[in-house]
Amino acid sequence: MIQLSTSPPPQNSSPETTSESKTPASGSSVQISNDEVKLHPDATPTPGPDVPAVTCPSYDEIQFKKGEPLSEGHRKFPYSRPSPECRTFNLPSLEKLIVQMKTIIKDPDLFRLFENSYPNTLDTTIKWRGYANKIDPVTKNETATDEELTFVITGDIDAMWLRDSASQIYSYLPLLEASDNRDSLASLWRGLINLHARYIIISPYCHSFQPPPESGLQIQHNGAYSQNKPIPPYDPKKVFDCKWELDSLASFLQVSSAYYQTHK
């Protein structure tokens, strides 16, 4: 286990699962009650930050509506970001950067592309954040630790690819600053490193993984599992898909090194 967190988990709070009346492919929705969630079979949800229970449109619905205001250029691109309360992670420094970039990117259509795309990972794909559980070897009881976890999806499947999630978060490296704040980018980054480390220990030859049991999220069915015969075999409750990709391991080293360089 890699222990990077310095702040204890909050008390009397609920897991930051993300869902809605219709679960979107993008994972851009927010919390619903536990009785509406199909839990991971091994789940003992870990306390996470309090999140307002609101109903949000899926990212597909946002795209279909072609939200206004349209960009003022020839292309008339729609505004495609979820409202702040429906974003899966809010980062004030990112919002400041977007405002600054409007004065730099003079073409209004090009700026709208940046405005919609650059924050998309934080807006829509931080499916869950929480803390790791520790299992007592004698009693088998689970207790929450202060080890942060961040589960990042690619957008269309509630599974996490090592390479993809690393690249998604790495794009925010210019905004990464040392911080113990639970709502900081550093916290998000620590959680990703910790979960990557867990997955690599579980199955170092695989590249895509199921939600952690602490999240309470439903494990995803991979139709190709019955046709795949990887050696060594993998547990489909923990691994979504298994292909040996050197860049998956390299991506873990990339985000870990970036965090270290920022915090040393």
Describe the structure.
- By secondary structure, this protein is an alpha+beta fold.
- The chain has one domain (34-263).
- 30% of the residues lie in helices and 11% in strands.
- It has helices spanning 59-65, 92-102, 108-117, 120-124, 162-170, 185-202, 246-263; strands at residues 126-135, 142-152, 160-161, 208-209, 239-241.
- The strands form two sheets. A three-stranded antiparallel sheet has the order 3-4-5. It has a two-stranded antiparallel sheet with strand order 1-2.
- Strand 1 (126-135) and strand 2 (142-152) form a beta hairpin.
- The radius of gyration is 19 Å and the shape is globular.
- Mean pLDDT is 85; it is low at 10-39.
Name the helix and strand elements from N-terminus to C-terminus, one letter apiece: HHHHEEEHHEEH
Beta-strand portion reads: 5-15%
- The total domain count is 1
Low-confidence stretches: 10-39
> How helical, in percent, are the residues?
25-40%
Q: Sum up the overall morphology in one term.
A: globular
> What kind of sheet is the major sheet?
3 strands, antiparallel
* Cα separation of the termini: 20 Å
Q: What structural class results from the helix and strand content? A: alpha+beta
The number of distinct β-strands equals: 5
Cα Rg: 19 Å
What average pLDDT do the residues reach? 85
Spatial order of strands in the largest sheet:
3-4-5
The number of distinct helices, counting runs of at least 4 residues, comes to: 7
